[in-house]
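Bug #77: duplicate submission created two jobs. Keeping one. Sequence:
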Amino acid sequence: MHSEQTSPRGAHVTGRSWGGLTELWQRPRGQLPALDALRAAAVLLVIGSHYTEEFAARYAPVVAASRFRALPTFNWGWTGVDLFFVLSGYLIGRQLWRERLETGTVRFGRFILRRGFRIWPLYFFMLLAYAVTGYLQVNVWDVLFLSNYKWGGLSRGWSLSTEEQFYIIVPLLLIATRRVRRPAVYAWGMAGLLVAVWLSRWMALQDYAARGFTGRALSDALYAPLHLHCEPLLAGLAIAFASVVRPDWFRASAERRGVSKVGLGIFVGASALGIALRTLNKNVFPFTALGLIYGSLALWLMLDRSWIQRVASWRVFYPVSRLSYGMYLNHFYVLPSVTVWTIAVLRSRGASEPLWFFGGLLVGALVSMLVAAATFLLVERPFLLLRDRLLGTRHVNAAPTHAAEPARGEPAPAVA
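Kept job's structure:
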């Protein structure tokens, strides 16, 4: 059955599939390109990290032996999850802050329904696909989004559990504090939450150390739980709060052309503070450091109007950004099969190490995008259209224009 869908740019697209393909290429009007560039970078960092570590160790030892796996982009690729958290904290936080400050409360059921229709269909579809093919053993922690506390079959699904818990806790806190009238109270409240996370990590550190945890085992134990790893989410939430409460700050900066000196200064200062905190105690402040670095980077790009913004506006980033959720969920299966074949073919033909190493990663990422595009058209988009019919809203694929304007659509979930 066919339907007529209005594209984000106002052109009419006949057919459900063509409308979906249009959404994957045309950035909606009013969407900040810098956030697309950051989300695209985040998913590529994560895939690159898995390519050179987990995947290489199991399926392609030749990749693990390559000198290129020592590049910083691969060594620090795991931090892509924290960049996702910053973006999610900002995009979701902005919606919630606006509704809370304008209406005095948050419609919890409507919010959860919107987020659920965005995340659950593809997530449970992929869990089913993995279980049916025998790729992994799904357990109750995967289904309940608690795999950040109890390890699930989809081992890297912990970040999705963290986000789901964030989506529940934050609106409930805003509803519980609906009698609060002074925005400053919320600012102090977020600062208090940050201190609470530090105390929680310090107490957990003492407990695990007393039980004999050291090195990587200690870091892993402190890694996944929400109450021990939420500083980047708080950073994004704080930026969203400032953008809603003091939009004039962002508007005045956005009107200036060239490199944003304010944004650059915040980035340099916050990054220096983050590095100093991590140097002080790498077990208590590691994610605070990443929250400061990535949060200030996102803020800088929101304010900047120089050549940096023009590069971030390249359209190629948008499809990767839009498909990042699907790429995260499918790349565990795609990388082992596709890249092993690609590397074998290139090496058999005498390709140099840089060519087969990066060629395997590139082909794996491209196939992951194609699979994500297919699941978007077949799984994600139908549920998004159904959601909009149920809620009586117009389907758009958009994120905020800039911090001084309202969010106009549904941001993609973060992935790790």
